[in-house]
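yo

u said u wanted the structure for the complex thing, so here. seqs first:
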Amino acid sequence: MKPPNPILFALYRSFLRLYPWRLRLLYQDQLLQTARDAHADSTSSIHFWPSLFADLLKSAVKEHLFMIRDQVIARPIFFHALTIGLILTLMGGSAAATFQQMLRRGANQPQIQMAESYSAEIASGVKPEEAIPRNNVDLERSLEPFAIFYDDQGTPTTANGYLNQSIPSPPRGVFKYLRSHDTDTVTWQPQPNVRIAAVIHRVAGPNPGFLLAGRSLRLVEEQESLFSRMVFLGWFTLVFLLIAGAALLHRFQRRNRALA
Amino acid sequence: MHRMSDNETNGINKHQPLSPAVFAILLALAGGEKHGYAIMKEAAEPAGGAIKLGPGTLYGTIDRMIRDQLVEETGYTDDARRRYYRITSLGHRVFSAEFSRIGNIVRAPRHNALPKGARA
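structre next:
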């Protein structure tokens, strides 16, 4: 009897973990022995091993599906609870995703208005240093909106927003994109822990360049994180109540059946 | 002559039509008790249905057939890793019913309906 390749055989043995636990417990030794016997009779290892692994994967999926079907038939209450849980998860998930999107989009205000207004002023001939307010916003600490004007080469010339006493610049790709599209909305991270909701406009006219209006996302992200925790807690409580309710009902029904 | 009760008929009907794997296993065991690999080999033969069963498919199917009381372990083993299976009386009846069902299909006169190249 020709022995199977020890590495492939060990791999097959470990792949048996994909098989449902109960079947593995009952048939593991027989599965391995049958694989050994089949290998001894096979004429080509090139065909034997792929077909053996393919059969294992296919049958593992099939047996898991059969197992789920059997459990559903045996415990319909759990199936209903699972369905309700799934529907609630999908509904809650979509609502949470929508709310997060709204929060993030809301973070682009007032930058949209600022970018439109300042870029229109600059395009009409007003100098960037006159269009942009003169206050000083620290991007790392402040939640105030700020504006930066970059010349046509992407070099910052005028700003009221600073990071470590210098004017930060977004990646070059942003300017490249704006040469063919007039406006862009991005989440910009000039340094770790500093994330900015930025709206950038291409400016034409006597002072061509790019006008970036931004605002720290710190508050929005804190709200998002709090909201995510609340959603998870709500979902977890709901699933726990569903499972506990289904288990109680199942027990109650079983006791009633036993008494009947 | 044994006449089947309605319950027996229902018990047989609920298994029909048999999947190719179940049919091939019953066909192999109809000839006598066998261990897993012997069933696999016989099923792969043209006369056994020419069904290529891998070990994973074979034991998953056998497990369901044991639960449906179509086959059972004999308890005999020449090696702890090779267990023998035999067909039960219900398995025999289900197999015979399936055999007749297929026989009826094969014998039915439908020369015009056969696909091109098929032999009646």
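The longest strand of chain A covers residues 194-203. The interface with chain B takes residues 19, 23, 26-27, 29-35, 37-38, 41, 51-52, 54-56, 58-60, 62-63, 66 of chain A (CB under 8 Å).
cya
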